[in-house]
Amino acid sequence: MQKRFNIGAHYNNWLSVGGQALVKLESLDRKFWGRGVAQIDPKIMEELGLSANDPVLAIGYRRTGLIVLPSDSRDYGRRVMKVDEETLLNMGVTLGDRVVVRKIEPKTAERIVLGYPEDFKGQPDLREVIISIRGRPLCRGNIISVRVGGKIINSAVEDYSPQEEAVVVGYNTKIEMIREPSKVQPKGVPLVTFEDIGGLTKQIQKLRELVELPLLRPE
């Protein structure tokens, strides 16, 4: 069994550095599930200059885009972010893990390709799809909940343009739906490297010493 690497497992001094922060994951209220929403410690929102409904990028083993809301005032200073199961899947992590979150300004997608289940009957109504995900930051490979025909289906973000780390769907975004299995990698396969996490030089060096040196120099 492959040992999972937790960004914050060896670094307990959680900081907000260079416009990003380390947060511990907790469960989101079910009324927000499936909407690409996360609730964050109000103190972190202050530190990162975030307002309600701002987009952020969350980085675990993989990346996902989220819309943030402030969590309860009782969470102030707890350094937590509350997410749903869909978000956990997209990041390849579990509750209790620590991930990096940072504010972003995603561009509006000109075109986006979404995969939908092979067993879905009929063709999804593109107008419903746009309404369902408009304004939500998306990353390539994410699984998202889309409402079509009064039902919720899981759709995979297969591709989009422009080629950015995240995009949002706007009124003029061209949506293409394809019926095929998702290309999303299995949960737990790391796609994020140390180089993906900017602005945490000292912390990354500590992690390299703790994680890499024992492998390179077992003696």
Q: What can you tell me about this protein's structure?
A:
GO terms for molecular function: ATP binding. Keywords: ATP-binding, Nucleotide-binding. Pfam families: CDC48_N. The protein has about 220 residues and is α/β, with parallel strands linked by helices. It folds into two domains: about 20-105, Barwin-like endoglucanases; about 105-180, Vcp-like ATPase, Chain A, domain 2 (Roll), CATH 3.10.330. The chain contains five helices and 14 strands. It has helices at about 40-50, 85-90, 125-135, 200-210, 215, and strands at about 15, 20-25, 35-40, 55-60, 65-70, 80-85, 100-105, 105-110, 110-115, 135-140, 145-150, 150-160, 165-170, 175-180. A six-stranded mixed β-barrel has the order 2-6-3-5-4-7. The chain has a four-stranded mixed beta sheet with strand order 11-12-9-14. A hairpin with a 3-residue loop joins strand 4 (about 55-60) and strand 5. The longest helix is centred in the last third of the chain and has 11 residues, at about 200-210. The model is unreliable at about 1-5, about 5-15 and about 180-190 (pLDDT under 50).
Summarize the structure.
The protein is an alpha/beta fold. The protein is 17% helix and 33% strand. The chain is built from five helices and 14 strands.
The largest pleated sheet is described as:
6 strands, mixed, barrel
Number of domains: 2
- What overall form do the CA principal axes indicate? globular
* Percent range of helical residues: 10-25%
pLDDT < 50 runs, ≥5 residues = 1-5, 7-17, 182-191
CATH topology of the largest domain: Barwin-like endoglucanases
CATH class of the largest domain: Mainly Beta
Task: Tell me the Rg in angstroms.
Answer: 18 Å
Instruction: Give the averaged pLDDT, no decimals.
Output: 80
Q: What is the correct CATH architecture of the largest domain? A: Beta Barrel
Which class of secondary structure composition applies to the elements?
alpha/beta
Distance between the termini: 23 Å
Which range does the strand content fall in?
25-35%
Number of helices: 5
* Oligomeric state, counting identical vs distinct chains: single chain
How many beta-strand segments?
14
**Sequence of secondary-structure elements:** EEEHEEEHEEEHEEEEEHH
Order of strands across the biggest sheet? 2-6-3-5-4-7
